[in-house]
Amino acid sequence: MTAPLDIERIRADFPILQTRLHANRVEGGVPLAFLDNAASTQHPRQVIQTIVRVFEHDYANVHRGIHSLSERSTELYEAAREQARAFINAADGTEIIFTRGTTEGINLVARSWGDSHLHPGDEILLTEMEHHSNLVPWHQLAARTGAIVRFVPITVDGQLVVDALDSLLTERTKIVALTHVSNVLGTINPVEAIIEKAHSHGAIVVIDAAQSVPHLVTDVQAMHCDFLAFSGHKMLGPTGIGVLYGRRELLETMPPFFGGGGMIRRVGLGGYEPGDLPAKFEAGTPPIVEAIALGTAIDYLQRLGLEAIHAHEVALGQLAYDRLSAIQGVRLLGPGPRRKSGIISFTLDGVHSHDVAQVLDHHGVAVRAGHHCTMPLHKRLGIAASVRASFYLYNTPEEIEQFAGAVNRVKHLFARKH
Ligand code: PLP
Fold first, then answer.
1. Number of neighbouring beta carbons within 10 Å of residue 168
2. Residues near 301 by Cβ (< 8 Å), separated by ≥ 6?
3. Does residue 329 contact residue 24 with C-beta atoms inside 8 Å?
4. Closest CA to 58 of 79, 28, 44
């Protein structure tokens, strides 16, 4: 058993959570209930202070200057790589490539590994619940190489039909790419079992971990994945920084994605020779301060413990599920709260999702409305849009009550209008 989170203490670390919104003309405003964490999370003072401290005391370009500041910033940048390595239990720091985020990591694999391994008629296997970032790069790869994209179907309650893999996986399948946690349904996919099946057919597996690494203990060695990508801004870190994990044997044989400074061993007028890992995949000046601040975010999450964070989110999800399912006209998407992460998406009969989100905003509740970059998933569910509330370590049961109360008011407001 892990100790529960001390939410009051945690909230004191996040200056923005003290915000009061004045949208509802309530005297003194309404407290902000920030429930849009699957889009991007807020930052604790520790992360903000790292950014300020590095700019004030430690900043210079990395891996270049033979001067003290450059040595200091390089040391901090490489220490952040080591923190990221330990966080996902990669075997070696050379397997950690700093990127701008999940999207860039997936594009890197599609371009570098995909372009050099796929041929006409080869197959790329995705699922019906993927984010556009784990769809479009594969559509583009298929268009470049003549490969075919196939999909693992989902059930009506938003779970993968894992048995379908037995017929979908063939010797033509070269890549299986899927999300660990759905950014809409919250479904936690059984990635280990899928990876095992994919490997038995000789396919490599790319895990979109944008919604899992911030919330669940991740061990890439136990998982046996080949690639795994995530974003710093969804786990208390800044934007513009992410990580692509890749198995060393694969990364070593892959051509660079971007070309430029920092990724070469030598360059001549006739060509170039790429540098060693991980520099080979980090062309140009990297997001130095962002990487160091991601290290602080990782440290913050590790001190609280991912098990405790997940348990807290599941409890909030259960409460939200209980409250919302009691409101007539609410249709909840995805599996029940015990089988998913802290994401709850729904539609409200007769009310457009954007209208729901707008009224919720007037009650201080920040949620996301729309297709959440999953148009095929929404089509599969027979809807154009949904409302999504997503929880993190600083959210409280009171905020869930504020959210559910506001959804109730939306319902009554629109019932009067119709
Ligand atoms: N994959 C999933 C499941 C996501 O939820 C997101 C972001 O919403 C992404 C990929 C893309 O992440 P980023 O925009 O940080 O590259």
1. 18
2. 87, 214, 235, 236, 309, 393
3. no
4. 79
- The band of 1, judged by pLDDT with boundaries at 50, 70 and 90, is low
Query: Of 346, 321, 318, which is closest to residue 331 (Cα–Cα)?
Result: 346
Catalytic residue annotation: 373
Q: Is 131 touching ligand 1 by the criterion CB < 6 Å?
A: yes
The atom of ligand 1 lying closest to the CA of 231 is: 15
By the 8 A CB rule, do 263 and 279 touch? yes
- DSSP symbols for 110-165: IIIIIHHH--TT-EEEEETT--GGGTHHHHHHHHHHT-EEEEE-B-TTS-B-GGGH
3-state class (DSSP) for residue 175: strand
User: From the CB of 361, is ligand 1 less than 6 Å away?
Assistant: no
Note the pLDDT tens digit of each residue in 145-173.
999 999 999 999 999 999 999 999 999 99
pTM of the predicted model, to two decimals? 0.97
Q: Which residue minimizes the CA distance to atom 5 of ligand 1? A: 183
CB 294 within 8 A of CB 99: no
- Which domains, and CATH codes, for the chain? 7-40+306-417 (3.90.1150.10), 48-303 (3.40.640.10)
Distance CA 321, CA 333 (A): 10
Cα end-to-end distance, the chain, whole Å: 50
